[in-house]
Amino acid sequence: MPILPIDTGRYGSPEMRRIFEEESRLEKMLAVEGALALANAKFGIIPEEAGRVIYERASTKFVKLERVKELEKVLKHETFAVVKALAEACGEYGEYVHVGATSNDILDTALALQLKEALNIIEEKLVKLVEVLMNLAEKHKMTVMAGRTHGQHASPITLGLKFAVWIRELARHLQRLREARRRVLVGKMSGSVGTMAAFMGKGWEVQEEVMRILELPGYEEAATQIVQRDRIAELICLMAMIASTLDRMATEVRNLQRTEIMEIAEGFGKEQVGSSAMPHKENPIVCERVSGLAKIVRSLVIPALENMVLWHERDLTNSSSERFIVPEALILVDEMLDDMIDVFTNLRIYPDKMRRNIELTKGRCLSEAVLTLLIRRGMGRMRAYELIRKCVRKSLIEDKDLIEVLWEEPEVRGIIKDRKELEECMNPSNFIGEAPRIVDRVLEMTRRELYS
Fold this sequence. Notes:
By secondary structure, the protein is mainly α. It has three domains: 14-96, Fumarase/aspartase (N-terminal domain) (Fumarase C, Chain B, domain 1), CATH 1.10.275; 115-133 and 151-265 and 280-356, Fumarase/aspartase (Central domain) (Fumarase C, Chain A, domain 2, Up-down Bundle); 361-430, Fumarase/aspartase (C-terminal domain) (Ribonucleotide Reductase Protein R1, domain 1, Orthogonal Bundle), CATH 1.10.40. It contains 19 helices and six strands. It has a two-stranded antiparallel sheet with strand order 1-2. Strands 3-4 form a two-stranded parallel ribbon. A two-stranded antiparallel sheet has the order 5-6. Helix 8 (203-214) links the parallel strand 3 and strand 4 (218-219). Helix 2 packs antiparallel against helix 3, helix 2 packs across helix 6 (103-139) and helix 7 packs parallel to helix 19 (435-451). The chain starts with 13 loop residues before the first helix and ends with a helix. The model has no long low-confidence stretch (mean pLDDT 96).
């Protein structure tokens, strides 16, 4: 009976969940046993016919999950249950199954096969999200809105620039993921304590051949009984970083969807319900889900790091926690990526509200623009800053437009002779600096990275 929401299908795409199902795990373990048999046969450790038969029978077509579970109940050992079930399926050649290997040669290499598939899905969806944001950045590179620091209006920015910042952060995650593959997608075929002693002098050759057959990019250079867990820790930390970026984006949408702000908002379906009690509600539930799941993914970092600390050549304290943290991290990040692709594909954007919100401060968020103009006209920065600060305070206390206060200030009028010039200076669209060019450069750089 399903209990956790991943098991019920609530979170994660079918293709990602399938990778970590019991049947798939068994299939990967059998694939490793099959590759081992071929390699052993190639280097004369077992008969050639035995290698061929084991390889052909190393499949869930012949080795059933139900039989493995029956055996495990008796043997109390997962890998040996797989080995025995495979041996049964291979008849007289079953004696040659698993020669030279230890359990984690099979388990860790099978995990690498699962991770290879999972990271392909994560990478594909990261690219898709970046592409969606690139389209938005291009479209809105001139859409002016209030920049905010400390929750307060700062100077104007563009919505395109906001998207560009996220694009580059996600692009760095793509770089990290691609670089991490050679460290994470690593198998092992070096025996019980990593010495290769049971491979009859052919350990290196067998290990390299197994990884070649399985199309894995690497193997553990110097193993204990297991692939070293810094590799898994790197993977989980990377998933937590991706989750935190998605959380950051979701949090920004949630904030900008506040009733009092309402500059952007999640899409909302015609038949969708926001509240069981209040018919008017259109809640940012997808972004809230992303923020909630990010908490779980970040929490998986601690056990991943603690799993690096094992006794001697290994103990079993990493195994049980990894059965949770590895599938959870990848399935939940997969869900979060799908969610954010949906959010930004269907994002509602309200430029008029952005403009009205800028006007809430009656020009005060353009104080830096006036400061910059006074400096350009020759006034010292400190003097100009104090002058503008005085005018801003007066504007705030008297609830007057800043431009009126400035125009009444003799020092300002002594430098800025024409009110139209002051009005142009305080037009938000005229104080977005290099934002459009930054967007263009980000798009060019990111396209080059994605498609070159």
